[in-house]
Amino acid sequence: MTDQALRETVIRLAQPVIHSLGLIVWGVEIARAGRTLVRLFVDVPTAPQTEESGDAPEGAIFSAITEADSGSAESDHPQGEPSATSTPVAPTSATIEQCEEISRHLALALEVEDSIAEAYVLEVSTPGLSRLLFSLEQMVPYVGDVVEARLLTPVASTDPAAHGGPRRVWRGILTAVEEEGFVLAPVTISPDGEVEEENHPSVLLPWSAVRRATRMYIFKQPQKPGKKPGGKARGKDGSKASGGQKATKKAKSGKKTGKAIADNDHTAN
């Protein structure tokens, strides 16, 4: 099965339970490096969260690890109950429980249809703050944010005043989304999270040339007196890792019954 056919199958099988939970499909990522990885992203059908949404989870990932000789579930991270005096607010992200329910239904449906012949890993996740973008339409709310675009082939700026050759990776402020592409104003990001404009004109990138586009959540690290800037929790470019609760489902040759284990994972992408 091709990657595109697998994406369509995953969406078709997952949509009924996703819609029943009041969520939407954000996208499906397929990675084939050794074991096939199928990662389904789900989100709430509201305006996307921003940096100011401090109470929003950055990314909740749940799937199931299955082993033929196991049959129990455990979790080291129980969810806190809301206060009786708290004011109800609209959800800003899918919950771990919702991701868990989607994962169970999707894993069973994939097994029934025998959609993936080889061993694979299934994850159900929220997009997080640093989120993958699967269409030009999804990019529109993030105009003004930093976006990284990894391309299938190098693309050069069409501005004759531009210096430097074609690039396979462009990083910049998203300034416009057009019918067939988008415009980035190139920037550099320091290890401390400082965003600085490059001495380079804006570049129009066709969506057909994009292999992977990501909205980057830039965290400006506070500098303590007497301390050098920098920190272990940040990437080299100052971007903040989109972590959260995570579990992984491994399936092999149709063997998909067994134990679900949830844990916290805060590793960088």
From TrEMBL:
InterPro entries: Ribosome_maturation_RimP, RimP_N, RimP_N_sf
Domain Ribosome maturation factor RimP N-terminal: 93-129
Entry's Gene Ontology cellular component terms: cytosol
Coiled-coil blocks: none
The keyword Cytoplasm belongs to this UniProt entry's keyword annotation: yes
Annotated SUPFAM superfamilies: YhbC-like, N-terminal domain
Residue ranges, compositional bias (Low complexity): 82-94
Keywords of this entry: Cytoplasm, Ribosome biogenesis
Compositional bias ranges of the Basic residues kind: 247-258
Pfam families assigned to the protein according to its UniProt record, in alphabetical order: RimP_N (PF02576)
GO biological process, one term: translation
Chief site of localization: cytoplasm
Subcellular location per the Swiss-Prot or TrEMBL entry: Cytoplasm
Region (Disordered): 68-94, 218-269
Role summary: Required for maturation of 30S ribosomal subunits.
Protein family membership: Belongs to the RimP family.
Protein name as catalogued: Ribosome maturation factor RimP
Lineage of producing organism: Bacteria, Pseudomonadati, Thermodesulfobacteriota, Desulfovibrionia, Desulfovibrionales
